[in-house]
Amino acid sequence: MINRRLVLGTIATAAMLGASHIAFAKEKHHLNGKDLLGERIKKNGKHKIHTTGKKVDVFAEVNNGKVTAVTAAGMQVKKVRSRQKLAETSPGLTLANMQVAQADLYYYGYWVYDDATDYYYWFPADYVIVDGSWVEYTA
Question: SS3 for 9?
């Protein structure tokens, strides 16, 4: 004979497991930091580059033509790099895939995140200070 508590416990466990996959699904937004910053790369200081979906302002700190940090109130930030170009240049514009002679080409991004969303602000190597603190981006 099947125990009613066992059946109800199994149903509750299955429902919680199903809901946990939904709760951990994060939105990922890849943005072109170079385009967002624009000509302000030439001015030292803290510049607003974006506002997240939760109305949090994202700032890039520029010193001598290089982005030294990205900050957002209440959100964590990590530095990542990737060989894959993840930010679009213009909406709807697809560039032809070209082979680059330089084998050590990386794009550098600041990963701004919280529990629900991930924002990546990608910059070319000449916009950031390249050192050993950048970790590999994993999708």
Answer: helix
Distances (CA, A) of 13 to 1, 8, 101, 124: 21, 9, 54, 47
Contact predicate 60/129, CB 8 Å: no
With respect to residue 61, please indicate whether it lies within any of the assigned structural domains: yes
* In 1-139, alpha helices (H): 4-23, 33-37
Q: Which pLDDT belongs to residue 126?
A: 94
Write the pLDDT tens digit of every residue in 91-102.
444 344 444 444
Quote the domain boundaries for residue 40.
26-136
Cα–Cα dist 50/74, whole Å = 15
